[in-house]
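Hey, sorry to bother you again with one of my protein questions. A protein chain has come my way and I'm curious about its shape. It would help a lot if you went through both lines with me. I owe you a coffee for this, so here goes:
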Amino acid sequence: MRPVLAIDNSNTGQFQDRPDLIGDPYASGPGCPETRTANCWVNPAAFARPAPFTFGNAGRNSLRGPGTRNVDFSLVKNTFVGSGRQLQFRAEFFNLFNWINYDNPNRTALTPNFGRIFSAGPPRQIQLGLRFIF
């Protein structure tokens, strides 16, 4: 994930300029007492606007978003009901342990929502099925 500016600081017309990195983005500080949380994934105080008509020094893909943990599980029970016919019961669990998988944080630097996470992946889902095979 790379931080970007909401303005065309370099005057190239791309609106994808990067800010200057002036500190540790994962260090806690004023306004961000604990990093790597949904409310403050990176410390916004670690970034500054570069001089006009220049590019920022924040590296491409210099920030890591939250990881993903997921376990899917299924159970299948086949019951024979005679002459080659079967009844199949399925129970499928998606995100079995119901872990929270945050989406990437807002990456527009020098805005009030920079570094905050506003969405997450789906919670546990359970799907049941009954199938008759003949």
